[in-house]
Amino acid sequence: MADIQGTYDDLFSAVPDKLAALLDEGDAGGSVAVLVDGEPVVDVWGGFTHAGRTAPWQRDTITNVFSTTKTMTALCALILADRGALDLDAPVARYWPEFAAAGKEKVLVRHLLSHTAGLPHWEGPVEELYDWSAATSRLAAQPLLWEPGTAAGYHSLTQGFLVGEVLRRITGRTVGEFLAQEVTGPLGADFHIGLPADQDHRVARTLPPPGRDEDYTAGAANSDAPRTTATAFRLRDGNSTAWRRAQIPAAGGFGNARSVALVQSALACGGTVRGVRLLSASGAERAREEQFSGEDRVIGMTQRYGLGYGLFGTSFGWGGWGGSLVMIDPDARMVVAYATNQMREPAEDTRGLDLVMAAYDGLQGL
Predict the structure, then answer these.
(1) What is the sign of the dihedral through the CA atoms of 71, 72, 76 and 77?
(2) Does residue 247 register a pLDDT over 70?
(3) pLDDT tens by residue, 87-141
(4) Cα(first)–Cα(last) distance of the chain, in Å?
(5) What is the distance between the alpha carbons of residues 278 and 124, in angstroms, rounded to a whole number?
(6) Strand, coil or helix: what is 334?
């Protein structure tokens, strides 16, 4: 069995056992954390940081968690809403006047957070993703694909720029700066949007699924999902230096399971975690206010969306391309997070869900 490092409560031994099994099945490396009441009952890691499998995954190894990053950006928006600085029912153009172009004056802030705004596709060159002004200007000029609020379609890359520009107009700070100063800094959480060069040595580069190379492109898990005009995004783009440095608040976050679980525990624990109050209890509860339920036009599957999070029963969270995931259960005051550098084909990837179910097995013993 693969060697697993870290600590865990004996009641939750199924979680490290599952991580070991994933590594035994051929995964390169990863980390898993389970926090209850903001405190770790599982904090484990194992495997290797690259395909050569000579450098072990360390306690402070970080990796790109792709769309799990959306939960960080959403939390920043919820914090501003809780402070009264952001009105979720306001038109986006109140904060970002240029956004009203091309018939978008009726798009509300809550539409951005719930994938119902009608701007799901990034259609510019990949290189433009690394230029905040160019990316947001492109989206401000883009027409809608549907009347806002009437349908949902996963805004895989665009959501971060849309929400992020509203936050920037209000605070004068990028999402990465706001997150660092208001959230991860106070909590001591090792998560970054816009990774400094001096942290590159800790990054486990993302590896493609078996039989694929770095030209592997992002796509929906459901093969029946409609074809789009979106720019193809390749794994080599996600592994580039430009991607690490840029502010990509929908998919460019770097961290590990420990840091993701710690930050999102604020929403599992009524807004306060380890003595740090990020938002009120009612502000934390807003994350799971249902905004949409039905078929997602981009993913091609039924989805329920809250304010920045996917809804799954009474729990909520989201996952990222390649397998990372966070699941938040306020009723149990529990968060489960998984970060990995090993991709699998999306339609066949149940690793995150399997780890969540293993955590619930332990929870029953508390």
Answers:
(1) negative
(2) yes
(3) 999 999 999 999 999 999 999 999 999 999 999 999 999 999 999 999 999 999 9
(4) 27
(5) 35
(6) strand
How wide is the angle at C-alpha 223 spanned by C-alphas 220 and 225, nearest 5°? 65
Does 230 have pLDDT greater than 90? no
pTM of whole model > 0.90? yes
The CA distance from 2 to 20, in Å, is 5
Residue 177 main-chain phi, psi, to 5 deg: -70, -45
Calpha distance 167→41 (Å, rounded): 34
Which residue in this structure is represented by tokens 């596709």?
A: 121
Q: How far apart are CA 355 and CA 220, in angstroms?
A: 22
In the chain, DSSP assigns E strands to 4-8, 29-36, 39-47, 63-64, 192-193, 253-255, 272-273, 276-277, 292-295, 302-305, 310-312, 315-319, 325-329, 334-340
Residues 6+ positions from 252 with CB-CB distance below 8 Å: 64, 69, 160, 193, 194, 243, 244, 246
Tokens of 307: 């304010």
